[in-house]
Design a protein that fits this description.
- 37% of the residues lie in helices and 21% in strands.
- It has ten helices and 16 strands.
- The longest helix is centred in the N-terminal third of the chain and has 29 residues.
- It is elongated, with a radius of gyration of 24 Å.
- The two termini are 28 Å apart.
Length: 397
């Protein structure tokens, strides 16, 4: 019996060696200058082509941010937004950096808030955004109208962007769930062309995004049966005032990470990255706190020289990874692989795209080696080439 098992195993080994060689040849033919690393679950190297060259990860960096978030915050973590009410019925809202405070979430929180405060009119709303410093800037984020350049903020709705339709001076919301507000109209008139588009809120004045969040909070309060008679301002919660309602995000961190990874949302990625530092070192958030926590975790896992991360989304070209370093992260993140997009064969992956940069990394389903970890980085060729390389790995190993 043992001899038959040994013979079968030896035969399988003989068959797999040519298969691996064929995959290597296929990869070399498709992308002779490309970086490709494939490791099995035990860390055995199956394919290594130009694998010692550091590369710019682009949005593949979000895989590292997701892993760090799971390490520090945990899958069940929920972001919080706190509401306070003074004796004059001024409503204070303290932002907690919730990365998924979208219109649907405001529709959930507004009735809960009114159940705690009653429906008597609020005489004003004051937004406390002090959890995020005014001078916070993320490397790689530029002053543009593009949604991927949205500023990070302690209190921002719909990823600090406005999705609307403009026709001349007329502006309407492009989303049934999102009311149009005066600030949204003025921003679109000033900065958007005719037609449907999504713009990030102005970077020249970060308070614009905070005020827009206040307008939408007021709009949803009114939809829930309340009202706001006074102005919306930016300020601080008075000392000693206790919250009347603490809203816990309806989505846990695992679900938020799924949305961030699938949508490749830069704003969400850096909101999460900033929370990592604040969780360990206390608020307010700062990029330096998160980077310090990151360096400690990298050192603990032997990644200090393998991964250079300057922000959490991958939008900065100063991020630098090694393929073997990223493969280590993939090994640690494997229990959460289902948070990633999947191919028809069931492989899980994350893409990254810049001018001159095409990356792909994740877990490939293979017949003979199970779920292998793979890293692909290309500096030329079409974006589809990444997936042709992944198909070669799926079919050949």
């Amino acid at each position: 019996m043992w001899s038959r098992l040994f013979a079968a195993g030896f035969a399988a080994l003989l068959l797999s060696a040519p298969a691996v060689a064929d995959v290597k040849d296929r990869i070399a033919a498709l992308a002779p200058s490309g970086l490709v690393l494939v490791l099995d679950e035990d860390g055995k190297e199956l394919v290594a082509r130009n694998a010692d060259e550091p590369f710019v990860p682009a949005s593949v960096a979000k895989l590292v941010t997701a892993w760090l978030a799971m390490e520090v915050l945990g899958a069940d973590y929920r972001f919080k937004t706190r509401f306070f009410l003074d004796d004059d019925r001024v409503l204070y809202v303290r932002g907690g950096g919730d990365p998924f405070l979208v219109s649907e979430e405001l529709a959930l929180l507004a009735p809960e808030l009114l159940s705690r405060t009653g429906t008597e009119p609020f005489t004003g709303i004051v937004i406390d955004s002090s959890y995020y410093p005014d001078d916070l800037r993320i490397p790689g984020i530029e002053a543009t109208d593009e949604a991927y350049d949205a500023l990070n903020s302690a209190l921002a709705v719909n990823f600090n962007t406005i999705n609307a339709v403009r026709k001349g001076k007329t502006v309407r919301s492009a989303e049934e769930q999102t009311p149009i507000t005066p600030l949204a109209i003025s921003q679109f008139r000033a900065r958007a062309r005719n037609g449907r588009s999504r713009i990030s809120l102005t970077q020249e004045d970060p308070s614009v995004g905070v005020k827009y969040a206040g307008e939408l909070v007021a709009a949803f309060i009114e939809k829930a049966g309340g009202s706001v008679t006074g102005e919306i301002a930016i300020g601080s919660v008075p000392a000693g005032l206790e919250p009347v309602y603490v809203h816990r995000q309806s989505r846990d961190l695992a679900e938020i990470l799924r949305q961030m990874l699938i949508g490749s949302n830069n704003y969400m990625a850096n909101q999460i990255f900033l929370e990592i530092g604040a969780q360990r070192s206390g608020g307010p958030v700062s990029l330096e706190k998160s980077l310090a926590v990151t360096r400690k975790i990298f050192a603990k896992h032997g990644l200090a020289d393998a991964i250079q991360l300057v922000e959490g989304s991958g939008i900065s070209r100063d991020n630098r990874f090694t393929a073997r370093g990223l493969a280590k992260v993939l090994d640690s993140f494997a229990p959460h692989a289902e948070l990633l997009r999947s191919t028809k064969k069931g492989s899980r992956y994350k893409t990254g795209t810049f001018s001159g940069v095409r990356t792909l990394a994740g877990y490939a389903k293979t017949a003979d080696h199970g779920d292998v970890r793979f890293v692909i980085s290309l500096n030329s060729g079409p974006g589809k080439l990444r997936f042709r390389l992944l198909q070669a790995i799926e079919r050949g190993l």
